[in-house]
Amino acid sequence: MALNDVTIRNVKPNGRAFKLKDSDGLFLDVRPSGKKIWRVRYWIKQKENTLTLGEYPAVSLKDARVMRDEARKLIVVGIRPESPKQANSSTQEQLQNTFANIAQEWLEQRRREQRSEKTLSGVQSRLRRLVLPFIGNMEMDQIQAPTLLQVIKRIEAKGTLETAHRVLNICGQIFRYAIVTGRAVRDPSSDLKGALLSVKSKHFSTITTPKEIGPLLKACDGYQGSEVVRIGLLVSALTFVRPGELRQMEWPEVDLDAAEWRISEDKMKMRRPHIVPLSTQAVELLRQLFKITGHGRYAFPSYRTPAGDRPMSDNTLNAALRRLGYGKEEMTAHGFRAMASTILYENGWPGDAIERQLAHMEKNAIKAAYNHAEHLDKRRQMMQWLADHLDGLKGNSR
After folding, report:
1. I want to staple 183 with a disulfide (CB 3.0 to 4.6 A). Which of 70, 143, 178, 208 is the partner?
2. Is 287 among the residues known to form the active site?
3. Fold exhibited by the domain 97-192
Protein backbone atom coordinates (compact mmCIF):
# COMPACT_ATOMS: atom_id res chain seq x y z
CA MET A 1 0.00 0.00 0.00
CA ALA A 2 1.30 3.47 -0.91
CA LEU A 3 2.44 5.72 1.90
CA ASN A 4 0.85 8.97 3.05
CA ASP A 5 2.13 11.91 5.10
CA VAL A 6 0.25 10.89 8.25
CA THR A 7 1.82 7.42 8.32
CA ILE A 8 5.29 8.82 7.72
CA ARG A 9 4.99 11.47 10.46
CA ASN A 10 3.73 8.96 13.02
CA VAL A 11 6.18 6.14 12.43
CA LYS A 12 8.60 5.64 15.37
CA PRO A 13 12.01 3.88 15.49
CA ASN A 14 12.01 0.51 17.27
CA GLY A 15 15.71 -0.16 17.86
CA ARG A 16 16.43 -1.59 14.45
CA ALA A 17 16.33 -0.37 10.84
CA PHE A 18 13.24 -1.16 8.80
CA LYS A 19 11.59 -0.09 5.53
CA LEU A 20 8.22 1.38 4.65
CA LYS A 21 7.43 0.68 0.98
CA ASP A 22 5.69 3.22 -1.24
CA SER A 23 5.47 2.30 -4.96
CA ASP A 24 7.68 1.68 -8.02
CA GLY A 25 10.72 0.93 -5.88
CA LEU A 26 10.45 3.96 -3.58
CA PHE A 27 10.74 3.25 0.15
CA LEU A 28 11.45 5.05 3.41
CA ASP A 29 14.45 3.71 5.31
CA VAL A 30 13.76 4.26 9.01
CA ARG A 31 17.00 4.17 11.03
CA PRO A 32 17.35 3.23 14.77
CA SER A 33 18.36 6.85 15.39
CA GLY A 34 14.98 8.03 14.11
CA LYS A 35 16.23 9.34 10.78
CA LYS A 36 13.93 8.69 7.84
CA ILE A 37 15.70 8.49 4.48
CA TRP A 38 14.10 8.16 1.06
CA ARG A 39 15.63 5.53 -1.24
CA VAL A 40 14.73 3.90 -4.57
CA ARG A 41 15.39 0.28 -5.41
CA TYR A 42 16.07 -0.41 -9.11
CA TRP A 43 17.81 -2.81 -11.51
CA ILE A 44 20.23 -2.18 -14.38
CA LYS A 45 21.58 -5.14 -16.34
CA GLN A 46 19.86 -7.49 -13.88
CA LYS A 47 21.86 -6.02 -11.01
CA GLU A 48 20.06 -4.52 -8.01
CA ASN A 49 20.98 -0.94 -7.02
CA THR A 50 19.78 1.59 -4.48
CA LEU A 51 19.48 5.33 -5.03
CA THR A 52 19.38 7.71 -2.03
CA LEU A 53 17.10 10.73 -2.52
CA GLY A 54 17.36 12.56 0.81
CA GLU A 55 16.02 12.78 4.35
CA TYR A 56 12.41 13.27 5.41
CA PRO A 57 10.91 15.86 6.05
CA ALA A 58 13.44 17.99 4.08
CA VAL A 59 12.40 15.82 1.12
CA SER A 60 8.62 15.41 1.25
CA LEU A 61 6.69 12.38 0.02
CA LYS A 62 5.61 14.36 -3.06
CA ASP A 63 9.19 15.43 -3.81
CA ALA A 64 10.48 11.89 -3.36
CA ARG A 65 7.96 10.55 -5.87
CA VAL A 66 8.91 13.21 -8.43
CA MET A 67 12.61 12.40 -7.96
CA ARG A 68 11.86 8.68 -8.30
CA ASP A 69 10.00 9.24 -11.57
CA GLU A 70 12.86 11.31 -12.98
CA ALA A 71 15.32 8.60 -12.00
CA ARG A 72 13.20 5.94 -13.69
CA LYS A 73 13.41 7.82 -17.00
CA LEU A 74 17.17 7.37 -16.90
CA ILE A 75 16.99 3.78 -15.71
CA VAL A 76 14.74 2.81 -18.64
CA VAL A 77 17.49 3.79 -21.13
CA GLY A 78 20.22 2.14 -19.09
CA ILE A 79 21.67 5.23 -17.40
CA ARG A 80 22.54 4.97 -13.73
CA PRO A 81 20.94 7.89 -11.85
CA GLU A 82 22.87 9.87 -9.24
CA SER A 83 21.74 11.00 -5.82
CA PRO A 84 21.31 14.76 -5.33
CA LYS A 85 24.53 14.77 -3.28
CA GLN A 86 26.47 13.02 -6.05
CA ALA A 87 24.91 15.24 -8.68
CA ASN A 88 25.90 18.42 -6.85
CA SER A 89 29.50 17.27 -6.54
CA SER A 90 29.78 16.37 -10.24
CA THR A 91 27.57 19.02 -11.88
CA GLN A 92 30.50 21.05 -13.17
CA GLU A 93 32.18 17.98 -14.62
CA GLN A 94 28.94 16.88 -16.27
CA LEU A 95 28.44 20.30 -17.83
CA GLN A 96 31.91 20.13 -19.29
CA ASN A 97 31.43 16.60 -20.60
CA THR A 98 28.09 16.92 -22.39
CA PHE A 99 28.09 16.30 -26.13
CA ALA A 100 26.82 19.85 -26.75
CA ASN A 101 29.68 21.47 -24.85
CA ILE A 102 32.35 19.25 -26.37
CA ALA A 103 30.90 19.94 -29.84
CA GLN A 104 31.06 23.70 -29.25
CA GLU A 105 34.63 23.41 -28.02
CA TRP A 106 35.54 21.34 -31.08
CA LEU A 107 34.01 23.96 -33.39
CA GLU A 108 36.01 26.71 -31.71
CA GLN A 109 39.15 24.66 -32.23
CA ARG A 110 38.34 24.40 -35.93
CA ARG A 111 37.91 28.19 -36.07
CA ARG A 112 41.31 28.69 -34.48
CA GLU A 113 42.68 26.49 -37.26
CA GLN A 114 41.15 29.04 -39.66
CA ARG A 115 38.73 26.63 -41.27
CA SER A 116 36.17 28.12 -43.66
CA GLU A 117 33.49 29.97 -41.71
CA LYS A 118 30.89 28.95 -44.32
CA THR A 119 31.77 25.29 -43.79
CA LEU A 120 31.72 25.64 -39.99
CA SER A 121 28.34 27.40 -40.10
CA GLY A 122 26.95 24.45 -42.06
CA VAL A 123 28.38 22.00 -39.54
CA GLN A 124 26.97 23.99 -36.64
CA SER A 125 23.55 24.11 -38.29
CA ARG A 126 23.47 20.33 -38.81
CA LEU A 127 24.46 19.72 -35.19
CA ARG A 128 21.86 22.16 -33.86
CA ARG A 129 19.00 20.75 -35.95
CA LEU A 130 19.78 17.06 -36.21
CA VAL A 131 21.92 15.99 -33.25
CA LEU A 132 21.82 18.23 -30.17
CA PRO A 133 18.06 17.89 -29.51
CA PHE A 134 18.60 14.15 -28.96
CA ILE A 135 22.03 13.71 -27.35
CA GLY A 136 23.23 17.25 -26.64
CA ASN A 137 22.69 17.00 -22.87
CA MET A 138 24.15 13.51 -22.54
CA GLU A 139 27.66 12.93 -21.27
CA MET A 140 30.06 11.61 -23.88
CA ASP A 141 30.58 8.19 -22.27
CA GLN A 142 26.81 7.69 -21.92
CA ILE A 143 26.36 7.82 -25.69
CA GLN A 144 26.72 4.30 -27.02
CA ALA A 145 26.53 3.11 -30.63
CA PRO A 146 22.78 2.21 -30.54
CA THR A 147 21.90 5.69 -29.24
CA LEU A 148 23.98 7.41 -31.90
CA LEU A 149 22.54 5.12 -34.57
CA GLN A 150 19.01 6.22 -33.66
CA VAL A 151 20.02 9.85 -34.21
CA ILE A 152 21.56 9.10 -37.61
CA LYS A 153 18.68 6.84 -38.69
CA ARG A 154 16.25 9.74 -38.15
CA ILE A 155 18.19 11.68 -40.78
CA GLU A 156 18.40 8.69 -43.11
CA ALA A 157 14.64 8.14 -42.83
CA LYS A 158 14.07 11.55 -44.44
CA GLY A 159 15.88 10.32 -47.54
CA THR A 160 18.88 12.62 -47.01
CA LEU A 161 21.51 9.89 -47.14
CA GLU A 162 24.47 12.14 -47.83
CA THR A 163 23.56 14.33 -44.85
CA ALA A 164 23.28 11.24 -42.64
CA HIS A 165 26.79 10.17 -43.58
CA ARG A 166 28.15 13.68 -43.09
CA VAL A 167 26.58 14.03 -39.65
CA LEU A 168 27.96 10.65 -38.59
CA ASN A 169 31.41 11.78 -39.71
CA ILE A 170 31.04 15.04 -37.75
CA CYS A 171 30.01 13.15 -34.62
CA GLY A 172 33.01 10.87 -35.02
CA GLN A 173 35.35 13.87 -35.16
CA ILE A 174 33.77 15.28 -31.99
CA PHE A 175 34.14 11.97 -30.15
CA ARG A 176 37.77 11.65 -31.21
CA TYR A 177 38.41 15.20 -29.99
CA ALA A 178 36.83 14.26 -26.65
CA ILE A 179 39.09 11.19 -26.43
CA VAL A 180 42.32 13.09 -27.00
CA THR A 181 41.27 15.75 -24.48
CA GLY A 182 40.46 13.13 -21.84
CA ARG A 183 36.66 13.50 -21.81
CA ALA A 184 35.70 10.23 -23.52
CA VAL A 185 37.03 6.68 -23.70
CA ARG A 186 35.98 5.62 -27.19
CA ASP A 187 34.25 6.70 -30.40
CA PRO A 188 30.91 4.88 -30.92
CA SER A 189 30.65 6.12 -34.51
CA SER A 190 33.34 3.60 -35.45
CA ASP A 191 30.88 0.80 -34.60
CA LEU A 192 28.40 2.07 -37.18
CA LYS A 193 30.45 1.37 -40.28
CA GLY A 194 28.10 -0.24 -42.79
CA ALA A 195 25.00 0.52 -40.72
CA LEU A 196 23.75 3.22 -43.11
CA LEU A 197 22.58 2.94 -46.68
CA SER A 198 25.39 3.78 -49.09
CA VAL A 199 25.36 7.02 -51.04
CA LYS A 200 25.71 6.84 -54.78
CA SER A 201 28.63 9.07 -55.69
CA LYS A 202 27.65 12.16 -57.63
CA HIS A 203 29.85 14.06 -60.04
CA PHE A 204 29.48 17.59 -61.30
CA SER A 205 28.08 17.57 -64.81
CA THR A 206 30.62 18.53 -67.43
CA ILE A 207 31.39 18.51 -71.15
CA THR A 208 34.68 16.92 -72.20
CA THR A 209 34.47 16.04 -75.90
CA PRO A 210 36.01 18.51 -78.39
CA LYS A 211 32.91 18.58 -80.60
CA GLU A 212 30.86 19.77 -77.59
CA ILE A 213 33.46 22.02 -75.94
CA GLY A 214 33.71 24.33 -78.97
CA PRO A 215 29.97 25.17 -79.11
CA LEU A 216 29.89 25.60 -75.31
CA LEU A 217 32.70 28.18 -75.38
CA LYS A 218 31.15 29.94 -78.36
CA ALA A 219 27.82 30.13 -76.49
CA CYS A 220 29.57 31.54 -73.40
CA ASP A 221 31.38 34.13 -75.52
CA GLY A 222 28.07 35.20 -77.04
CA TYR A 223 26.20 35.41 -73.74
CA GLN A 224 23.66 38.26 -73.99
CA GLY A 225 23.18 38.92 -70.29
CA SER A 226 25.54 40.79 -67.98
CA GLU A 227 29.03 41.44 -69.39
CA VAL A 228 30.44 40.58 -65.95
CA VAL A 229 28.80 37.17 -66.11
CA ARG A 230 29.96 36.60 -69.70
CA ILE A 231 33.55 37.24 -68.67
CA GLY A 232 33.04 35.07 -65.58
CA LEU A 233 32.08 32.08 -67.73
CA LEU A 234 35.11 32.49 -69.98
CA VAL A 235 37.56 33.06 -67.13
CA SER A 236 36.17 29.93 -65.44
CA ALA A 237 37.10 27.92 -68.51
CA LEU A 238 40.58 29.48 -68.72
CA THR A 239 41.52 29.19 -65.01
CA PHE A 240 39.36 26.19 -63.94
CA VAL A 241 39.27 27.36 -60.32
CA ARG A 242 36.35 26.42 -58.09
CA PRO A 243 33.28 28.65 -58.63
CA GLY A 244 33.51 29.97 -55.07
CA GLU A 245 37.11 31.01 -55.64
CA LEU A 246 36.25 32.80 -58.88
CA ARG A 247 33.33 34.78 -57.52
CA GLN A 248 35.44 35.92 -54.53
CA MET A 249 38.31 37.17 -56.71
CA GLU A 250 39.44 40.57 -55.38
CA TRP A 251 41.30 43.07 -57.54
CA PRO A 252 44.26 43.43 -55.11
CA GLU A 253 44.92 39.70 -55.62
CA VAL A 254 45.38 40.09 -59.37
CA ASP A 255 48.59 41.32 -61.00
CA LEU A 256 47.74 41.71 -64.67
CA ASP A 257 51.24 42.87 -65.59
CA ALA A 258 52.72 39.71 -64.06
CA ALA A 259 49.81 37.64 -65.44
CA GLU A 260 49.15 36.11 -62.03
CA TRP A 261 46.32 35.72 -59.54
CA ARG A 262 47.31 34.85 -55.97
CA ILE A 263 44.51 33.47 -53.79
CA SER A 264 44.97 33.53 -50.02
CA GLU A 265 44.64 30.31 -48.04
CA ASP A 266 41.46 31.43 -46.23
CA LYS A 267 39.57 31.28 -49.55
CA MET A 268 40.88 27.88 -50.59
CA LYS A 269 39.13 24.59 -49.82
CA MET A 270 42.41 22.96 -48.79
CA ARG A 271 43.50 25.99 -46.72
CA ARG A 272 46.67 26.59 -48.70
CA PRO A 273 47.53 29.69 -50.78
CA HIS A 274 47.20 29.17 -54.50
CA ILE A 275 48.76 30.79 -57.58
CA VAL A 276 46.81 30.92 -60.84
CA PRO A 277 48.99 31.79 -63.87
CA LEU A 278 46.93 33.84 -66.32
CA SER A 279 47.07 33.24 -70.06
CA THR A 280 47.14 36.21 -72.39
CA GLN A 281 43.45 35.53 -73.13
CA ALA A 282 42.58 35.58 -69.40
CA VAL A 283 44.56 38.82 -68.90
CA GLU A 284 42.70 40.48 -71.77
CA LEU A 285 39.32 39.46 -70.36
CA LEU A 286 40.25 40.74 -66.89
CA ARG A 287 41.44 44.06 -68.34
CA GLN A 288 38.00 44.42 -69.94
CA LEU A 289 36.41 43.52 -66.60
CA PHE A 290 38.52 46.04 -64.69
CA LYS A 291 36.94 48.85 -66.73
CA ILE A 292 33.56 47.73 -65.40
CA THR A 293 34.23 46.65 -61.80
CA GLY A 294 37.73 47.96 -61.02
CA HIS A 295 36.30 50.68 -58.75
CA GLY A 296 35.21 48.08 -56.19
CA ARG A 297 36.66 45.30 -54.09
CA TYR A 298 35.42 42.26 -56.02
CA ALA A 299 36.19 41.53 -59.66
CA PHE A 300 32.84 39.73 -60.01
CA PRO A 301 30.48 41.69 -57.73
CA SER A 302 26.83 41.11 -57.08
CA TYR A 303 24.65 43.18 -59.40
CA ARG A 304 22.77 44.32 -56.29
CA THR A 305 25.87 46.10 -54.93
CA PRO A 306 27.07 48.71 -57.45
CA ALA A 307 29.94 49.63 -55.10
CA GLY A 308 31.35 46.13 -55.58
CA ASP A 309 31.60 45.26 -51.89
CA ARG A 310 29.83 41.88 -52.21
CA PRO A 311 30.67 39.02 -54.60
CA MET A 312 28.17 37.60 -57.08
CA SER A 313 25.96 34.82 -55.77
CA ASP A 314 27.14 31.23 -55.94
CA ASN A 315 24.39 30.36 -58.44
CA THR A 316 25.02 33.15 -60.96
CA LEU A 317 27.22 31.19 -63.38
CA ASN A 318 25.02 28.10 -63.24
CA ALA A 319 21.98 30.27 -63.97
CA ALA A 320 23.81 31.72 -66.98
CA LEU A 321 24.53 28.23 -68.32
CA ARG A 322 20.82 27.41 -68.00
CA ARG A 323 19.98 30.55 -70.00
CA LEU A 324 22.36 29.31 -72.68
CA GLY A 325 20.37 26.08 -72.85
CA TYR A 326 22.66 23.78 -70.87
CA GLY A 327 20.70 21.76 -68.29
CA LYS A 328 22.18 20.92 -64.88
CA GLU A 329 22.66 17.34 -66.05
CA GLU A 330 24.84 18.60 -68.95
CA MET A 331 27.11 21.32 -67.58
CA THR A 332 27.80 23.21 -64.34
CA ALA A 333 30.22 25.99 -63.43
CA HIS A 334 32.21 23.44 -61.45
CA GLY A 335 32.32 21.29 -64.58
CA PHE A 336 34.92 23.61 -66.17
CA ARG A 337 37.45 22.00 -63.81
CA ALA A 338 36.80 18.47 -65.08
CA MET A 339 36.72 19.76 -68.64
CA ALA A 340 40.20 21.32 -68.34
CA SER A 341 41.58 18.34 -66.43
CA THR A 342 40.39 15.91 -69.11
CA ILE A 343 41.86 17.98 -71.93
CA LEU A 344 45.23 18.36 -70.19
CA TYR A 345 45.58 14.70 -69.25
CA GLU A 346 44.57 13.55 -72.73
CA ASN A 347 47.20 15.81 -74.25
CA GLY A 348 50.06 14.52 -72.12
CA TRP A 349 50.59 17.30 -69.59
CA PRO A 350 52.25 16.06 -66.35
CA GLY A 351 49.86 15.01 -63.61
CA ASP A 352 51.78 16.88 -60.88
CA ALA A 353 51.30 20.18 -62.69
CA ILE A 354 47.62 19.49 -63.42
CA GLU A 355 46.79 18.44 -59.85
CA ARG A 356 48.70 21.38 -58.40
CA GLN A 357 46.79 23.76 -60.64
CA LEU A 358 43.54 22.13 -59.57
CA ALA A 359 44.67 22.81 -55.95
CA HIS A 360 44.03 19.22 -54.99
CA MET A 361 45.43 18.01 -51.67
CA GLU A 362 48.36 15.64 -52.00
CA LYS A 363 47.58 12.37 -50.20
CA ASN A 364 51.23 11.73 -49.39
CA ALA A 365 51.89 13.86 -46.28
CA ILE A 366 55.58 14.37 -47.09
CA LYS A 367 54.93 15.32 -50.69
CA ALA A 368 52.11 17.63 -49.55
CA ALA A 369 54.63 19.93 -47.86
CA TYR A 370 55.76 21.39 -51.18
CA ASN A 371 55.63 25.13 -51.80
CA HIS A 372 52.47 26.47 -53.41
CA ALA A 373 54.59 27.78 -56.31
CA GLU A 374 55.92 24.33 -57.29
CA HIS A 375 55.73 23.49 -61.01
CA LEU A 376 54.89 27.15 -61.62
CA ASP A 377 56.91 27.50 -64.86
CA LYS A 378 55.32 24.32 -66.24
CA ARG A 379 51.91 25.51 -65.10
CA ARG A 380 52.36 28.83 -66.92
CA GLN A 381 53.12 26.97 -70.14
CA MET A 382 50.19 24.62 -69.51
CA MET A 383 47.67 27.43 -68.90
CA GLN A 384 48.70 29.25 -72.07
CA TRP A 385 48.53 26.04 -74.09
CA LEU A 386 45.03 25.35 -72.72
CA ALA A 387 43.82 28.84 -73.62
CA ASP A 388 45.16 28.49 -77.17
CA HIS A 389 43.64 25.02 -77.46
CA LEU A 390 40.23 26.27 -76.30
CA ASP A 391 40.42 29.13 -78.81
CA GLY A 392 41.03 26.55 -81.51
CA LEU A 393 38.04 24.45 -80.45
CA LYS A 394 35.84 27.56 -80.30
CA GLY A 395 37.01 28.73 -83.73
CA ASN A 396 36.29 25.33 -85.27
CA SER A 397 32.74 25.15 -83.89
CA ARG A 398 29.78 25.91 -86.07
Report:
1. 178
2. no
3. DNA polymerase; domain 1 (1.10.150)
Q: Given 80, 271, 345, 370, which residue is catalytic? A: 370
Q: Establish whether 378 is a catalytic residue.
A: no
56 counts as catalytic: no
Closest-CA residue to 213 (of 96, 326, 50): 326
Helix (H) or strand (E) holding 30: strand 26-30
Q: Select which of 230, 242, 274, 394 is catalytic.
A: 242
Domain with CATH 1.10.443.10 in the chain: 210-396
Answer yes or no: 360 catalytic.
yes
Q: Where in the chain is the domain with CATH 3.30.160.390?
A: 5-81
340 pLDDT above the threshold of 50: yes
Of residues 73, 128, 360, 367, which has the active-site annotation? 360
**Residue 298: DSSP 8-state:** B
Catalytic residue among 334, 356, 379, 394: 334
Q: Is there a catalytic annotation at residue 345?
A: no
Domain 210-396 indexed as CATH 1.10.443.10: yes
CA distance 394 to 398: 9
Which pLDDT band holds residue 235 (cuts at 50, 70, 90)?
very high
Q: Where in the chain is the domain with CATH 1.10.150.130?
A: 97-192
The 10s digit of each residue's pLDDT in 65-101 is 888 888 887 777 676 776 655 555 444 444 568 999 9
Identify whether 242 is a catalytic site residue.
Answer: yes
Instruction: Give the pLDDT of residue 229.
Output: 95
Instruction: Please tell me which residue in 115, 165, 166, 269 is annotated as part of the active site.
Output: 269
Q: Which residues lie closer than 8 Å to 45 by C-beta, 6 or more apart?
A: 78
Class of the CATH domain delimited by 5-81: alpha beta
**Catalytic, out of 65, 230, 337, 379:** 337
Among candidates 243, 241, 217, 239, which has minimal Cα distance to 230?
217
